[in-house]
Amino acid sequence: MVALNFKSQFASDVITRKKRQSIRGRKIKVGENIQLCTGQRTKACKKLVQTDPICVSCRPIIIARNYVKIDGEGLSFGARRNLALSDGFVSIYEFLDFFCPTPDDVFEGFLIKWGWA
User: Fold this and answer.
1) If DSSP codes are grouped into helix, strand and coil, which group holds residue 99?
2) pTM above 0.90, yes or no
3) Domain range spanning residue 35?
4) pLDDT, one tens digit for every residue, the chain (117 residues)
5) b/e per residue, 83-110, with b = 16+ CB within 10 A?
6) Residue 111: CA atoms inside 13 Å, Cβ hemisphere, count?
7) Listed residue (18, 12, 100, 111) closest to 60, CA to CA
8) What's 91's domain CATH number?
9) Phi, psi (deg, nearest 5) at residue 49
10) Counted domains in the chain
């Protein structure tokens, strides 16, 4: 089992199951149970959902200011926008500021999606 910690800005979307994905620097095995938490490593740590979801996909993702690639395929602007909204951001610009704070930054990680049996 793996635990994913979420900033408070994403917690309500995780609780309501609006957010069913996360972009992380580490890979998770498909089929693995995931604990969704907030406040890890603090006294305020808590699980966000009682029933742990299962990882249904884990795909390589690269995020830069002018492109996003999943499994090596570039996404259109509309697809990048949809990805940002699905990940809990208000806009593609907020998403890019989060993952690429400076113009030269490139984030490489994994797009993890989960579901319940």
Assistant:
1) helix
2) yes
3) 2-115
4) 899 999 999 999 999 999 999 999 999 999 999 999 998 888 889 999 999 999 999 999 999 999 999 999 999 999 999 999 999 999 999 999 999 999 999 999 999 999 997
5) bbeebbbeebeebbebbbeeeeeebebb
6) 16
7) 111
8) 2.30.130
9) -135, 145
10) 1
